[in-house]
Amino acid sequence: MDHDKIIVSVTKDELILNSYRATRRECGDLENLIVALKDSNEHVKNIALNKLDVIGEQIKFLQNQAKEILEEAARNSELHKIPCNFIKVPGTIYHLYQRPQNDEKIWSMISPQEFGTSCKNTYLGSYRIEPDKSFTPVDSLDEYAEKREFAESLIQSRSKILPALEFMTKKERKDSEIES
Asked: Is the model's pTM score more than 0.90?
């Protein structure tokens, strides 16, 4: 049976055969084989643990991303619930204020600079509404633009990627047909 074979790597110097030694068994041979098997089992275990460590790091990264997405969704939901007397247009920056009389939050098209000192409301922040109706804080617009540019570059490069994927899919189909 093939699974009973043991493959051992040897150096060039160890390839010199001694016919007497090759046909003779010594008492330490079995012990050496047991030690080699234990070492290989430990090696396989360490390889598996290293791979699981990588997967664990990926899981942590995905959990952090999921947490950020849920926090952003909650913020967007709260911002959408705030009263507004106009239709929000994607790409436009709107300003959030809070009335001191009743702590009610309101949207405005007028920035704090435009209001000047005549504004009695507390300024809470400015947001741009995106095409997907999410809100981006004005201080995060550069980061949003970088992410958007990267995503658009992926879309533009898809013409290069898709033929390769189609080739791989065809090759996988051929391989599975050959196996069956």
From this structure: no
